[in-house]
């Protein structure tokens, strides 16, 4: 259940780097790489659209293993990202459009709130909350650096 | 659209104080008190279950005014709260059960992710993301103080 140190060492950088690693691991169906993106905290939680709240590393891992158990190729297209970046925690809101196998029509969007914490090894996920959403309204991508604007 | 300084001055305290003020304002249908709980940032966002992402103070306010426009009495029951508390941002995950008027059966739950930022005037909401959820599984209420556990 523990993250490998080699994987963790590859995940330094800004919160948007860990976000890229997270969605890349999702697309590859790489459960170890995916779990290496998460903080080493008992309270991490993950909510898939319309699903239960999975709390803790084991429950979070199991929830993704169930998704990866079907031989499905997933491609994510992310749109209209909002970032709040603080000293120790960052929040991202993003619309996720999903291509399943070779389907021409994208599914979604889901709207996801991703929460990251800064650890000595880099930013790590604390929470992923995805829910159903109507079509995303047009809006620019924006980042607010909390504590620097004031 | 600006928050009154008198209202803001009454909203000092910890992130869970502002959370209490937020749900109290919801139950009272007090739009000014509700908006006084939010940070003064263009990027604040609010997602009601299954609804669009409302970005910015005007869109957030309008989304609540539409809910308050119907003469409905709302009572919230909050369960299984998880808190991540950092230096400048705090995150709360909570199940919301809702009593509408005198209905005996509670509606929900919705699962909400609330994000707060610490401002000179106290903690304020940056984001409220509520989505549909199956019945909440039993789990304790927990708080993780990020940066203090490591």
- Most extensive interface, chain pair and sizes: A-B, 46 and 46 residues
Low-confidence stretches of chain A: 1-10
Largest sheet of chain A: 7 strands, mixed
What is the count of helical runs of chain A? 4
Rg of chain A (C-alpha, Å): 15 Å
Q: Strand tally of chain A, please?
A: 7
Multimeric status of the protein: homodimer
Helical content class of chain A? 10-25%
Residue-averaged pLDDT of chain A, rounded? 83
Instruction: Using the alpha-carbon principal axes, give the shape of chain A.
Output: globular
What does this structure look like?
The structure is a homodimer of 150-residue chains. With 150 residues, chain A is an alpha/beta fold. Chain A has a seven-stranded mixed sheet with strand order 2-1-6-5-4-3-7. The longest helix of chain A has 14 residues. The first copy, chain A, is globular, with a radius of gyration of 15 Å. The interface between A and B is large, with 46 and 46 residues.
Write the layout of secondary structure elements.
The structure is a homodimer of 150-residue chains.
Chain A: H1 5-9, H2 15-28, H3 31-36, E1 45-47, E2 53-55, H4 57-68, E3 74-85, E4 89-100, E5 107-119, E6 122-132, E7 142-145
Parallel strand pairs in A: 1-6, 3-7
Antiparallel strand pairs in A: 1-2, 3-4, 4-5, 5-6
Question: Could you give a quick summary of the protein structure above?
Answer:
2 copies of one chain form a homodimer. Chain A has 150 residues and is an alpha/beta fold.
Could you list some keywords that capture this structure?
homodimer; 150 residues; alpha/beta; 7-stranded mixed β-sheet; 4 helices; disordered N terminus
């Amino acid at each position: 259940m523990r993250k490998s140190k080699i994987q963790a060492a590859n995940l330094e950088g800004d919160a948007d780097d860990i976000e890229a690693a997270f969605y890349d691991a999702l697309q590859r169906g790489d459960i170890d790489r995916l779990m290496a993106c998460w903080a080493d905290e008992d309270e991490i939680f993950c909510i898939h659209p319309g699903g239960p709240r999975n709390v803790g590393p084991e429950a979070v891992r199991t929830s993704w293993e169930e998704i990866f158990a079907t031989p499905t190729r997933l491609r994510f297209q992310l749109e209209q990202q909002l970032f709040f970046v603080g000293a120790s925690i960052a929040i991202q809101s993003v619309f996720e459009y999903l291509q399943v196998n070779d389907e021409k029509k994208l599914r979604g969007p889901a709207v996801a709130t991703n929460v990251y914490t800064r650890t000595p090894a880099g930013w790590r996920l604390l929470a992923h909350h995805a829910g159903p959403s109507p079509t995303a309204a047009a809006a620019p991508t924006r980042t607010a650096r909390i504590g620097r604007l004031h």
